[in-house]
Design brief:
By secondary structure, the protein is mainly α. The chain has 3 helices and no strands. It has a domain of 122 residues.
């Protein structure tokens, strides 16, 4: 009897495990529909992103062109101001040279040492006051030039940063 029992035990131990029951067809159909829905939603999101990117790229291209135009306008204004300043400095140098020659001629006509010292004092006072006035006017002109040259750039920068290019894709970017 022991041999018969042992044989039955061996055959049950080598038996194959039972197969899993097949998934119902309705569950497979639901999984496929969810995958298709997810795929469609992902495609819609991608299309929205691509459209927002294209719209923003065109807008940025326009703003970049505006900034380049503003920079060109700024450089032209700076060039004009530099030419004016250079002309003013050349005129001032010419005037100082003329005044120096006139001073030297006057100094040779001085009859006394007191008269020569008086002429020197007048010359140096005029020279100093002229240079101070020139510096003052050049400072004012520089400030005006800075306002003129930065205005186009400020305009383009304000336009560039006035809208939010990510608002169409990221709703939280509008906050």
């Amino acid at each position: 009897m022991t041999t018969a029992t042992k044989t039955t035990t061996d055959t049950t131990a080598t038996a194959k495990p039972a197969a899993k029951p097949a998934a119902p067809k309705a569950a497979v159909k639901d999984d496929n529909e969810s995958a298709f829905a997810f795929s469609g939603a992902a495609r819609d999101q991608y299309d929205a992103l691509l459209k927002a990117f294209n719209d923003n790229a065109e807008e940025m291209q326009g703003r970049t062109q505006e900034m380049l135009d503003a920079s060109r306008e700024t450089f032209e204004a700076m060039q004009t101001r530099m030419q004016e300043t250079s002309a003013e400095l050349m005129e001032a140098a010419r005037q100082e040279m003329t005044d120096a020659v006139d001073f030297a001629n006057e100094l040779t006509r001085a009859k006394t040492m007191g008269e020569a010292l008086e002429m020197q004092r007048d010359y140096w006072t005029r020279l100093f006051e002229g240079r101070v006035e020139r510096v003052r006017s050049m400072t004012e002109a520089s400030m005006e030039a800075m306002r003129e040259t930065t205005e186009p750039t400020q305009r383009s920068m304000q336009a560039a940063f006035s809208s939010n290019p990510f608002a169409s894709f990221f709703p939280s970017a509008q906050k």
